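To: structure desk
From: M.T.
Subject: fold request, one chain
Message: Could you run this one when you get a chance? Sequence is below, nothing fancy, just the single chain.
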Amino acid sequence: MQKKTLSDIAIQGKRVLMRVDFNVPLDEDKNITDDKRIVEALPSIRKVLDNGGRLILMSHLGRPKGKPNPDFSLAPAAARLSSLLECPVAMAGDCIGTEVMQEVLALQDGEVIMLENLRFHPEEEANDPDFARELASLGEIYVNDAFGTAHRAHASTEGITRYVQTAVAGFLIEKELKYLGKALQEPERPFVAILGGSKISGKIDVLENLFNKVDTVLIGGAMIFTFFKAQGLDTGNSLVEDNKLELALSLISQAREKNIKLLLPMDVIVAPKISADADSRPVSVDAIPEGMIGVDIGPETREAFRREILGARTVLWNGPMGVFEIDRFAEGTFAIAEAMSQATAAGATTIIGGGDSAAAVAKAGLSDLMTHISTGGGASLEFLEGKELPGIAALND
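Reply: Done. Structure tokens follow.
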């Protein structure tokens, strides 16, 4: 997807309307508990300000259900951005209207204003054309740098592009397209995909799309038990999607036909219940005791997966290997993160597909040792499924 980016346009003196993803977590006192999303947008923001653009930022925060709600104000995000940039960031009282237009027109070169939460208006998620046109009227150039919302056709991501001539990708989206796009289009081989998570149903499209691209697929997470039950193994009380057993068998045979190495675990960690104080132990996958629940991949599997990862030139990971939120069931997930960090050091391209995998890598303290961590869980999943992302498709080629 060859899209125009911020580097391709002149910004000096122009009003630049930028869609960012400042949907950050807040505590009860409205303090930001993780500013990663704001930090990720800094390169694009600085580019506009350093080049004498007049920057208008827009984002959503939480789910205010289409009406103003002070609990979901973007004011804390504006304050945090101000301290990161070490310059004032004005905060608008709304995202459209006469007053907002006056504030925007008063901006000088190198100044920045943050619009209030887009989702205070139901028209945003409805992709209402009048609302999109009114947003578009605030700027002369539109930049989308919110990969996390690129899979949604909202007024600020897709509708707006119909009313501006120049609509380009920011550096964050450019980076996502570079790494995710290259992995899917022209990966260095061997290309290994690691898929985890609880349900096959959430990953079918990804699996089927990746079967046309990869050399090896490693499968972990609770979805392995649907594969095991389909093959006639006892799965105890583990999570199984009974309506997906035939699908599991068909995925195994598709992999065989396409000459793809599909690796399922040889051993798993089992526990009587999913809780931090539960006794747990490794068992072979053909010896899962009655009443026990599979909660992680076992030590033998970790070692086998590690060897595959270290032999790869491109590794893509989406979905944890077990219940990593509980420390004692996180060893398999952390082992994958560790192996990927070693693969990166050995020159492989390692990509984490957002969501839980990104959280797991952060929990393992290894985020800085990956080639690329996607900022959009849902968006990266749809990208890996081979779907067109409306917020990106709408940008200038």
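Reply (cont.): The first strand starts at residue 15 and ends at 19. Let me know if you need anything else for the meeting.
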